[in-house]
Amino acid sequence: MGKITGFMEVARQDLTSLPPEERVKTYSEFTIPLSLESVSTQGSRCMDCGIPFCQTGCPVNNIIPDWNDLVYKGQWQSALETLHSTNNFPEFTGRICPAPCEAACVLNINSDAVTIKNIEHTIIDHGWEQGWVKPQIAAQKTGKKVAVVGSGPSGLAAAQQLARAGHEVTVFEKNDRIGGLLRYGIPDFKMEKHLIDRRMEQMRAEGVSFKTNVHVGVNLSTDELLKDFDAVLLTGGSEHPRDLPVPGRELDGVHFAMSFLPQQNKRNAGDSVNNNILATGKHVVVIGGGDTGSDCVGTSIRQGAASVTQFELMPRPPEKENKPLVWPNYPMKMRTSSSQEEGCQRDWSVATKAFLGSNGKVEKLLAVRLDWQKNDQGQMVMKEVPGSEFEVKADLVLLAMGYLHPVHEGMLKDLNVGLDNRGNIAANTDNYKTSLDKVFAAGDMRRGQSLVVWAIREGRQAARAIDEYLMGSSTLPR
Length: 478
Ligand SMILES: Cc1cc2nc3c(=O)[nH]c(=O)nc-3n(C[C@H](O)[C@H](O)[C@H](O)COP(=O)(O)OP(=O)(O)OC[C@H]3O[C@@H](n4cnc5c(N)ncnc54)[C@H](O)[C@@H]3O)c2cc1C
Ligand code: SF4
Prior knowledge:
- This protein has 19 helices and 18 strands.
- The chain has helices at about 5-10, 20-25, 35-45, 55, 65-70, 75-85, 90-95, 100-105, 115-130, 155-165, 195-205, 220-230, 255-270, 290-305, 325, 340, 410-415, 445, 450-470; strands at about 15, 30, 145-150, 170, 210, 230-235, 240, 255, 285, 305-310, 345, 350-360, 360-375, 380-385, 390-395, 395-400, 405, 440.
- It is globular, with a radius of gyration of 23 Å.
- The chain binds flavin-adenine dinucleotide (FAD) and iron/sulfur cluster.
């Protein structure tokens, strides 16, 4: 602990951002970095608690107190090594992680948490600027071949770990670019895509081979995959979206969020897009209040929507959490994302009854208000409020209500791999093994829709499990 009184002397300093009216003019990231000196001072607020709850709150168990201290002392390169020892891609999490670590920070009990996420962001960005991030090429090759299906954060973390253990790793991706939802889904204004390209260069130098436009189970058979590789890791994500089968669902202008968001990623990358779905000049209604819904809001605003409304089925959460009750867990409370800040009408306890339109095109949405009450078992149940139906203009409706499970058709059916009762691949976190010999699974494909940081954790742990399976033991971290 660098400065014993730091937490008493220094106030939390958050990142600032370009004002909404400025940032919506582009699809670029818009946070304004703090100086290294300011971040160093923020590091002094860490109390190096006897039990670092932040570290257990972080899914990759980042060794947060150690790098806070190193940053305070100006030892940025050591801080980077410590950070990389648990997290392959801190430039991703430092930008888009919801930071459960900060909810778990002991200072958060009666004061403001340490700015852990921004310290992480600064360590890695500074590390890249200084040229400290280098390929770590395995000293010896094992001669074993591993296939990773899916190039999201889980597949990439696993591939990097496995290559560093000396295996010959090939990543197969059905899309035309590597990155999974980091590339196609998460908007560029939250995370610019050159960050993925830079990591891919490092990974190529470490021996990872990337094959795009290969859809396993479609243009590459699962038999071939099993024949050609000593182990196979499935990290194909959770891509089956939750639908809203109400009258009018078939109308033109009602789309899944994931038909809309990747198109803008592609335009930003300079690609031309077929069957454009654009919010320009339209009254947009986003159904679903989570990350995906929020990304639809920010993207619609940048495209020049006439209005953006976001409906959430659940009731409006409390403004503040009851800390004695919920700390150190990530609390349910009212949050406003940067996209929502940019100008969107939000409404809670609203269900969609129908989409209305003419000539095959959506024009309005018919909604109803809900009353949520606890039943005898203490569960929240909803009832429609009689007479509360209302209509809103809607030329574009974006469905962002989450994902049910991975796509079963194709690869998973061909493999005939065992599924759990939610339709995800069944594999436990002791060894990430599926029901099939030499086939492993990790990330959203195994745990269901989740977070980038969980995907990285699972990728790292699955890599160790595969290394143990292939070699009998492993020196990769758990
Ligand atoms: C719009 C959106 C915004 C989000 N925002 C955030 C956020 O801000 N912060 C956060 O922490 N999390 C966020 N998430 C969640 C996060 O992106 C995911 O939890 C994470 O990307 C899961 O990683 P993964 O590697 O398991 O799968 P994915 O990232 O989904 O990658 C799976 C990859 O596998 C490929 N694939 C699938 N099947 C095959 C096949 N048969 N053959 C070849 N390739 C295949 C897919 O094309 C895809 O590229 C968001 C999710 C969405 C949809
Ligand atoms: S990865 Fe997320 S939870 Fe972990 S330290 Fe970074 S911001 Fe916190």
